[in-house]
Design goal:
This protein is an alpha/beta fold. The protein contains eleven helices and eight strands.
Length: about 350
């Protein structure tokens, strides 16, 4: 069906409206990765990432001096080595997994809604960029946009920053489609069940750990004091997952669960307890067997594959631990895809034949 809004194609203006049809564009987004595991590529990626005022809220003049004078001189080389340790033959793990998620979601949606719904994936930093994918949607005649940032727990530096990028691009358009922006799914029942399934499967294979550590990505504590709900959403996810696993008679008890925060950066106080310090403390005590999962990550990436799987394993074992198991992110598991479809379906209901 033709949109009631149309305009003559203007080749000099890629944002002109041409041949617009009533189609829905579903945009899945994640944080992003450097294009290559090299110092130069990592520097470019970090420059874009750390220049975002949603990510670092230090006064701009001061932060730009620190970023360009110190951080971008020394951090890229170190980070490049870490990326090299997790890089795959197909590229950055986060992008590879995100593509797999996109394909599975697209296949399921196409079966139900046909070609009127287009599913694509974009990265907040790096490529494929949000602006480029949105421009593809525009050329495909998208009349309704659904944006699902794959951050289960809303946070200003991730979810809100995604909104900023979407809005920045749409501000350049003559015709702005209707927009549905999904800002959190921390309490979605199917998301919680998918997490519980991954833990249950691990327990069945490796046994009941002394502690199940739920490690969320960190955030400066001041962000929370300023009103960011991320910490509260992490607590809700933790409680719901705990309830689900205890109800399943998994062998885990209320005392089995520990919520922590990882990946802190800089000298400011971040949300606590810190994952690395907690792991060392557990190992020095009576918890010699732990399993660790990060409900904040929808796809495995540097922070899970290197920091949780490798770096924190070493911390735990060096402190006296005996068994350390990382439970992978939900990635493109079928139950995770079902959860994402469950989140999207209410906004697609008017397309159902």
């Amino acid at each position: 069906m033709k949109s009631r809004f149309s305009a003559k194609k203007n080749d000099a203006n890629p944002r002109s409206i041409s041949n617009a049809t009533e189609k829905v564009g579903v945009l899945l987004t994640n944080l992003g990765s450097p294009s290559e595991p090299t110092t130069t590529a990592v520097r470019d990626y970090l420059r874009e990432f750390l220049s975002d005022p949603r990510v670092v809220e230090i006064p701009r003049v001061i932060w730009m001096l620190i970023l360009h004078g110190i951080v971008l001189r020394f951090r890229p080389k170190k980070s490049a080595k870490l990326y090299q340790s997790v890089w795959t033959e197909h590229g950055a793990p986060l992008l590879v997994i995100s593509r797999a998620q996109q394909q599975k979601v697209a296949d399921q949606i196409q079966q139900q809604y046909g070609d009127d719904v287009i599913v694509d994936v974009a990265m907040r930093y790096g490529e494929p960029s949000i602006s480029n994918v949105l421009q593809k949607f525009q050329q495909q005649g998208v009349d309704k946009l659904i944006v699902l940032p794959l951050y289960p727990q809303y946070a200003g530096p991730t979810t809100a920053s995604t909104f900023d990028a979407v809005s920045k691009e749409l501000q350049k358009w003559r015709y702005v489609p209707s927009v549905n922006f999904i800002n959190t799914y921390h309490n979605n029942p199917l998301y919680i069940k998918a997490l519980a399934n991954s833990v249950s499967e691990h327990v069945a294979e490796k046994g009941i750990p002394d502690k199940l550590v739920l490690s969320y990505h960190g955030m400066p504590e001041q962000f929370y004091q300023w009103g960011d709900p991320y910490y509260e959403f992490c607590k809700i996810t933790t409680e719901l997952l705990k309830e689900e696993l205890i109800a399943r008679a998994s062998g885990l008890t209320d005392d089995s669960f520990v919520m922590t925060f990882q990946s802190r950066f800089g000298k400011a106080k971040w949300l606590q307890p810190y994952t690395d310090e907690t792991l060392a403390s557990l190992a020095k005590g009576s918890s010699k067997h732990i399993a660790i999962i990060s409900p904040a990550f929808s796809a495995d990436c540097l922070e899970t594959l290197e920091e949780l799987e490798s770096e924190n394993r070493e911390i735990f074992m060096d402190a006296g631990g005996e068994q350390y198991h990382y439970i992978g992110a939900l990635n493109d598991r079928d139950d995770h895809i079902s959860a994402l479809l469950n989140i999207l379906t209410p906004l697609l209901s008017d397309k159902q034949s």
